[in-house]
Amino acid sequence: MSPQLLHRVGAGALEWLAANRTHFRARTDASTSALEIGERFKPIGELAVIGKVLFREGVAGSQQSAIIRKLLDYAWREVLDGGELLAWLQRREPLSPIPLELYVPFQELGYRNQEVEGRARLARGLTSWTALEMAPNRRLGLARVEIRAGLPPSIEVAEAARRTWLGRTPEPWTAVYHIAYDVTHTVFHLTDWGEHPEALPTDIADYLELWLPVWIEDWASVEHWDLLGELLVVDACLPRPTLDPAAWQLYAAAQQPDGAMPVQRTLPPGDPADTFDLAYHPTLVAAFASVMATSRAMTALTVPQP
């Protein structure tokens, strides 16, 4: 697989994100529900995760590294008000895991807010924190976030993983739309967003190596670029990634000239302010997939051939 094509997808995605950074917003007011707040904060947390991956893998050029650092500075200072909006949400919803989930990737990149950290420790000490009911995949992700924050996990990672859909390695044809996203995020959580492919349990890795190519082909055939991008990341998280050339060619061709990636098929015409909510997630995923695949492709170039 051509590292140039892989890199070009990520470079275009970052340029679009930078050009549209003012649309990352976390509007809050007294009438806003916790669910609405979480949805508004979600893009910012995802941006921080992608930034961490980009710096960790070290395959982006100096221009892309500068772009993502400026984006992260903007998101932290201007959108999250230096973390004060996360503290505000903690005061309003003391048991919400969202502030901690969003804060940790920023903390890992050097952004700190003492009130957020103190309130997280306080909430984590309550029995009600571990009693919160949530989907197994979400519980796994929270356990990994707690560990990364230096807190005891509310459930052991191995136990949480076995409760997920993927952890049970069920009939592969039942991985419909919403379950497919659970599959991808289970892999992201278990591998710490691709940093530790060896952390995937052997049976899960074997299951994915067998069925992931089928899922990639299926979602590519219906031109669902958002999910295809996440599946391409999963491929790069496996101990033996394939970097499917055909899927990557289709994926790269779907990217818009300005760097935006549609969710499915093409982006509808409209003002960037209107289309941002449709395009930000698949475009972030495109940057993520590009960095991971470029890193794996570069590694493959240095491995001696038999």
TrEMBL record:
<dbReference type="Pfam" id="PF21836">
    <property type="entry name" value="DUF6895"/>
</dbReference>
<protein>
    <recommendedName>
        <fullName>DUF6895 domain-containing protein</fullName>
    </recommendedName>
</protein>
<feature type="domain" description="DUF6895">
    <location>
        <begin position="11"/>
        <end position="290"/>
    </location>
</feature>
<dbReference type="InterPro" id="IPR054190">
    <property type="entry name" value="DUF6895"/>
</dbReference>
